[in-house]
Amino acid sequence: MKKAVLVTGANSGIGLALCERLLCQDAEIQLCLACRNMQRAEAARTALLVSHSDAHITLLHLDVGSVSSVLKAAQEVKMRYNRLDSLYLNAGIMPNPQVDIKALLKGLFSSKVIHMFATAEGLLTQHDHVNSDGLQEVFATNLFGHFLLVRELEPVLCQPGHTSRLIWTSSSNARRTTFSLSDIQHQKGAEPYSSSKYASDLLSLALNRHYNDQGLYSSVVCPGLVMTNLTYGILPSFFWTLIMPVMWLIRVFTNTFTLTPYNGAEALIWLFLQNPESLDPRAKYHSLTSGFGNNYTQPRKMDIDEDMSEALYEQLLELESKVRKKVKKEEEDPRVHEQYLHQTE
Ligand SMILES: NC(=O)C1=CN([C@@H]2O[C@H](COP(=O)(O)OP(=O)(O)OC[C@H]3O[C@@H](n4cnc5c(N)ncnc54)[C@H](OP(=O)(O)O)[C@@H]3O)[C@@H](O)[C@H]2O)C=CC1
Ligand SMILES: CC(C)CCC[C@@H](C)[C@H]1CC[C@H]2C3=C(CC[C@]12C)[C@@]1(C)CCC(=O)[C@@H](C)[C@@H]1CC3
What we know:
48% of the residues lie in helices and 15% in strands. With 345 residues, the chain is α/β, with parallel strands linked by helices. The chain has a single domain (4-344), classed as Rossmann fold, CATH 3.40.50. β7 (164-169), α8 (192-211) and β8 form a beta-alpha-beta unit. Bound molecules: NADPH dihydro-nicotinamide-adenine-dinucleotide phosphate and the ligand CC(C)CCC[C@@H](C)[C@H]1CC[C@H]2C3=C(CC[C@]12C)[C@@]1(C)CCC(=O)[C@@H](C)[C@@H]1CC3.
């Protein structure tokens, strides 16, 4: 039977490279590109069809940062598919990133230089804001929208006698100290990206605990440092091009500089080929590229614990129930949403 695979954030970067590689791996798959911008989605589909003219590629409108869009898209998926084999939770944002140049220069001459290049620890901050659902945008996009999608798609992901998989594009920038159970949306800090990625690591563990007995398995990946729209938002593309020789040199010392979306998608493809039951729920699967340009996947233990992951899971369930109530009220009376927006202005 043809496998059905859905990829969020599929129109550029790692998501698009993943789609290309999935089609090379299995030309028969039913591939669904879930994107917030349909023009960009159509362009991605056209590009994929150039090298895979017979491929079965459909588009789905999904703004993962919007509760109503997620609910609508999930309804559509349930109408289109009886079963979803793989769901790649890949869409992600890092708004208004700032590099701490002082910390970068200091780090360059410290013993932690390799760790700094691999994780960007202490180097990056972002400015986040509240979205129209009243949620922190980074949390809503990188984590909560995807959580809601998984919950909504339960009937097509949990089919008796079959296994399905969730694959989260996390990051080695995920750090325990940036995440707090008393502020899961990271309203107070300046590292919402790191916090949201740490939360996805915790959530993946919790999803395994709650869904493995229904045949659903979850894994997390770090694609390494990849040149995409996300990194071009940190430093302009001409700067990255200028320092490319330095980046290749750094790759000799840290295999996490995968640099191209193709290389970055390595672990995402590797997981697609594994039996999900054989995977370690506490491992993050890293896409790595050696100094000679060879790609490989390596599991590394995550700094997470069961209690914290369960506590986050419970808070997400609570938030889910709140937003569902709000959506229901708005459906009954659209003025509720307008009033809500006035209150948050
Ligand atoms: N690049 C890197 O070095 C690393 C990236 N990652 C992660 O990889 C993932 C992919 O990012 P990358 O390929 O680098 O960057 P890109 O910006 O190229 O890709 C991000 C994708 O997510 C989509 N997206 C963003 N917000 C939403 C939304 N609200 N709803 C639907 N889609 C959305 C974007 O769509 P649109 O084109 O419309 O903006 C785009 O297709 C992210 O989760 C990122 O955090 C992890 C580690 C390193
Ligand atoms: C290499 C140059 C001489 C200077 C570049 C300095 C920084 C801009 C980069 C050093 C480590 C990079 C990094 C990321 C962004 C750019 C750096 C901070 C990420 C945070 C991008 C997104 C991710 O999810 C991480 C895996 C990256 C980790 C490394």
